Amino acid sequence: MNRAETEIRDLAEKLAPALIAIPGCAALTAAKTLGETADITRFRSAAAYARHNGTAPLPVWSSNRARHRLSRTGNRQLNAALHRIAMPQTRCHQPAKDLITRRRNSGDGGLEALRILKRRLSDVVYRAYAPTVCPRLDRGAIYSPPPSRRRRPRRGSTAGRRRWPGIRGRRPARPPA
């Protein structure tokens, strides 16, 4: 058993050294994610990878309160590997502990905070694969919030018009000449 484990460790360190550098990710977990992911280039973004491994949040509404729940779809083996990375981080890795504490203090439950941590770890694992395949991806802060989305210009009949104050925001009628 030890010989097989050292062989797996050597292969995992050779193929994805950045993956083993993630706190809580051992050689067997790295090998499992390598095998289940197969080829990172099939995913066009970290969000597509999160959808594949089942950590993308699903919006649900209950009593006029929007929230997210854990997705039960996706690759369950890959989700279990992310869970094996997340559990030691909740005990030993300070940024993950801070994230869990912050989410619990803001009103989320323990499972909701763990879901958020697993989603962030999915992005970290994606970025750990990506530099060898796609160097344009940077390795930003692990637990920083995602960048704000750029607002698109309005479309439709009022897209380029200036809005005027008054009744229904329309321009006042011109007096007859």
Outline the structure in words.
With 177 residues, the protein is mostly helical. It has one domain (2-141). The chain is built from seven helices and two strands. The protein has helices at 2-15, 17-20, 27-37, 46-53, 76-92, 94-105, 110-133, and strands at 58-62, 65-69. A hairpin with a 2-residue loop joins β1 and β2 (65-69). α4 crosses α7, α5 crosses α7 and α6 (94-105) packs across α7 (110-133).
The overall number of domains is: 1
Low-confidence stretches: 135-145
Question: What share of the residues does DSSP label as strand, in percent?
Answer: 5-15%
Share of residues in helices: 40-55%
The SSE string, one letter per element, is HHHHEEHHH
Strand adjacency order, main sheet: 1-2
Number of distinct beta strands: 2
> Whole-number average pLDDT?
79
Tell me, briefly, the overall form: elongated
Compute the gyration radius: what is it? 23 Å
Instruction: Please describe the biggest sheet, giving its number of strands, its sense, and whether it closes into a barrel.
Output: 2 strands, antiparallel
The assigned structural class equals: mainly alpha
Q: Termini separation (Å)?
A: 96 Å
Number of helices: 7
